[in-house]
Automatic annotation (TrEMBL):
The keyword Transferase applies. It comes from Acetobacter sacchari. Pfam families: Carboxyl_trans. PROSITE patterns: COA_CT_NTER. Keywords: Transferase. It comes from the Bacteria. Residues 1-249 form the CoA carboxyltransferase N-terminal domain. This is Biotin-independent malonate decarboxylase subunit beta. Signal peptide: none annotated. NCBIfam families: malonate_beta, PRK07189.1.
């Protein structure tokens, strides 16, 4: 049953991390671990005269989705860009390790839902943040090796950049909306290192063409495309929890083969309309402009499926 508070389908992009959790899970089933009342905050931000958050911008806990137990992690993109840091990273890694330890027991969960909304590593805690990303990847793969799918939901203001892009690629299934963006290197970083001639970070149309949800699902960087409301993300999370591929060497080999084919087919393209034209889309220039219903119909017609992860 869909929680009553999301009947009006609020925007995922506009919602806070806590509201996204409330909308995805069954009503009144969420139990938070290390919530704001525990006051587990970053010990470093005070040195930079920056205000901390009582949850350090990450919410972790357990709940139910369609009556089945799940673990859930949500980054708050409006606090420090949802960045990975010492405390926030420890909360993520701790929950993932607990899920792996409980696999196959009465305390086990059917899936992990990862609500990514991050610009990557927190610069004020860069070393700890880099470690947090690497430990998150290791813990996440441990969850998958235990037979538990990890479903990423991407559609927030910060997207999934830097370490968040790496973590996304490690998940069993990635759900994205038009507003979602995924990339290891952010637009501003590319521009800083290569110049605006290479990539103009102020060109929003360019940014979304390259890193946005439609490009990612067409290229296989995401597995499911949804409209940008909370109810659609909830429905996709429930579906993909049961559709994730097994974490085996065969799955990894299939994914490697898919990526090699993608590079061979499109590696010399300068912009996504070139890719869509080469892929055979009838009107590649229209992809960013059509509405969600038309884009979902396009995906259905082309039978876009990227099951290898």
């Amino acid at each position: 049953m869909i929680p009553e508070e999301i009947v009006r389908s609020p925007s995922w992009y506009e919602s806070s991390a806590r509201n996204r959790i409330a909308g995805v899970l069954d009503a009144d089933t969420f139990h938070e671990i290390l919530g704001p009342a525990e006051r587990v905050m970053s010990p470093h931000l005070e040195l930079f005269d920056l205000p901390p958050a009582f949850d350090d911008g990450v919410i972790v806990g357990r709940g139910q989705l369609d009556g089945k137990p799940v673990a859930i992690i949500a980054q708050e993109g409006q606090f420090m860009g949802g960045t990975f840091a010492e405390v926030s990273g420890a909360k993520i890694v701790g929950l993932l390790r607990a899920v792996t330890a409980a696999a196959g027991t009465p305390d086990g969960v059917s899936a992990v839902l990862l609500l990514l909304d991050t610009g990557g590593v927190r610069l004020q805690e860069a070393n700890a943040g880099e470690l947090a990303v690497s430990e998150t990847v290791r813990a996440l793969l441990g969850v998958r090796a235990a037979g538990i799918p990890v479903v990423a939901l991407v559609g927030g203001r910060a997207g999934a950049f830097g370490g968040g892009g790496i973590v996304t690629a490690c998940c069993s299934h990635v759900v994205i909306s038009e507003q979602g963006r995924i990339s290891v290197t952010g637009p501003e970083v590319i521009e800083t290192n290569k110049g605006a001639e290479e990539f103009d970070s102020r060109d929003r149309a360019l940014v979304w063409r390259v890193t946005g949800g439609r490009s990612r699902v067409l290229l296989g960087g995401a597995d499911s495309y949804v409209k940008g409301d909370v109810a659609s993300f909830r429905a996709a999370a429930a579906r993909s929890r049961n559709a994730a591929p097994p974490f085996t060497l065969e799955t990894m080999a299939a994914e490697q083969e898919r990526l090699e084919k993608r590079l061979s087919s499109y590696g010399d393209c300068r912009d996504t309309p070139e890719i869509w034209a080469r892929a055979g889309l009838a009107d590649p220039a229209s992809v960013p402009d059509i509405d969600d219903d038309a884009f979902l119909a396009l995906l259905s017609e082309r039978e876009i499926k990227h099951d290898a992860r």
